[in-house]
Write a structure and sequence with these properties.
Structural class: alpha/beta
Helix content: 25-40%
Shape: elongated
CATH topology of the largest domain: Rossmann fold
Order of helices and strands: EHEEHEHEHEEHEHHEHEEHEEE
Bound molecules: S-adenosylmethionine
Strand content: 15-25%
Distance between the termini: 49 Å
Number of helices: 9
Number of strands: 14
CATH architecture of the largest domain: 3-Layer(aba) Sandwich
Length: 378
């Protein structure tokens, strides 16, 4: 292994760990290992830049700095955070923010932990440089990740800064857009590789077809962003970043000519939004988007993979929702023979189909547990 390799942690949503590990492996990351909502791997600085640009199913790339043990008192927390050579990683002039996940059994007040960590970091900078970095929750230059567990803290620098689902292409959204990282994960869980037609018949702001087009054209999902966390670090190598950025762009290609990527929505204003997003992602020539009521559509010839999240309105009476879902399934059975249909929904579609799904995944859509199930139509 390259001597300059270091450990990184890519975080993701529950249920996407394996697809993310595969992405890391395919990109050339060393020793990818799925964890809970994360994947550990090794690589050098250039790989860290590439991972931020290329990984479609990662939420953040973290660079661990220290693993602190025996945090049994406020004094221990303060001393151990202060002992980290922060000035080696970034300048005192940067604004910082501590993001905390998990919880310490020994010091259960999380807010207090972040306050003490900030004091320790600021005091160290003041003693060494005469300046103290200021804290900014909105748009900090440097985001520090503290993962608390029992009496331990993993301290990492966040190489992504803003989470990676903020691709930068989605300017217009509807009431319930799916997260970009989740959409990219669904396509990979469904095993879609750009070899069959892809249809999202209820595409809303177009996230699923856009992520499909990025994948089929090998467009790095992070390419639209101007900022990543690592750009604020002392060791940021702008030439290396420019080189990596150019190199990943060389792999962009046209999707296979024989496949079509399509999105329909019955609301013309949603289709307008989707079109705007397609344009800002630069994939409008690869995706056909149209205002169409699903119940008036038919399958186009050739193998089709459908991936969609039908509307789920908790305010709707169950009987009406039941009727709507039953209609969806009836329409699929009558008009989408031999399509592979993947549905992400809070409520299982099994009772409406006369078949069991051939694959099923339990995922989270935000805070809501959902099922992602694939059905093969006869
Ligand atoms: C949960 S949203 C999909 C969100 C989308 N994945 C995104 O990222 O924005 C469901 C969409 O289904 C659309 N819809 C509802 N009934 C429909 C129908 N009969 N035909 C087509 N679209 C429909 C709604 O207009 C809404 O945009």
């Amino acid at each position: 292994m390259n001597a300059e390799n270091f450990k990184m942690i890519a975080t993701t949503f529950k249920g996407l760990e394996k697809v993310l590990a595969r992405e890391v492996q395919e990109l050339g990351g060393q020793r990818p290992r799925p964890l809970v909502r994360a994947v550990e791997f090794y690589g050098d600085r250039g790989f860290m830049y590439k991972a931020n640009l290329r990984l479609a199913t990662a939420l953040r790339i973290l660079k661990p700095l220290a693993h602190l043990r025996n945090i049994k008192s406020v004094a221990a927390l303060y001393d151990k955070i202060k002992a980290i050579p922060w000035e080696a990683y970034f300048d005192a002039g940067r604004t910082v923010y501590f993001h905390i996940s998990g919880r310490l059994d020994t010091l259960p007040h999380t807010h207090f932990v972040s306050q003490k960590a900030k004091d320790a970091l600021a005091d160290r900078f003041r003693e060494i440089t005469g300046y103290r970095p200021s804290v900014s929750k909105e748009n900090p230059d440097v985001r520090i990740d503290l993962h608390l567990f029992r009496d331990q803290i993993s301290v990492s620098l966040d190489a992504s800064g803003e989470p990676l689902f903020k691709r930068g292409y989605r300017t217009a959204t509807g009431p319930a857009p799916i997260n970009e990282v989740l959409a990219a994960g669904l396509l990979r869980l469904a095993g879609w590789k750009g070899q069959t037609h892809l249809l999202d018949p209820m595409c809303g702001s177009g996230t699923i077809p856009i992520e499909g087009a990025l994948m089929a054209a090998n467009i790095p999902p992070g390419i639209f962003r101007e900022k990543f966390g690592f750009m604020q670090w002392k060791d940021f190598d702008a030439d290396l970043y420019a080189h990596i950025r150019n190199a990943v762009l060389k792999h962009v290609r046209e999707p296979l000519e024989i496949i079509r990527i399509m999105g329909y929505d019955k609301e013309p204003y949603m289709v307008e939004k989707a079109m705007k997003n397609l344009q800002s992602a630069g994939v409008e020539q690869f995706v056909h988007c149209e205002a169409k009521d699903f119940f008036r559509t038919r399958k186009i010839p050739g193998p089709v993979t459908m991936v969609f999240n039908p509307p789920y309105d908790r305010r709707l009476p169950v009987a009406r929702r039941d009727e709507f879902y039953r209609r969806i399934v009836r329409h699929l059975e009558e008009n989408y023979q031999r399509a592979e249909v993947w549905i992400i929904s809070e409520q299982s579609f099994d009772p409406y189909f006369n078949r069991r799904p051939f694959r099923r995944f339990q995922l989270m859509n935000g805070k809501i547990p959902v099922t992602f199930a694939g059905y093969k139509m006869d």
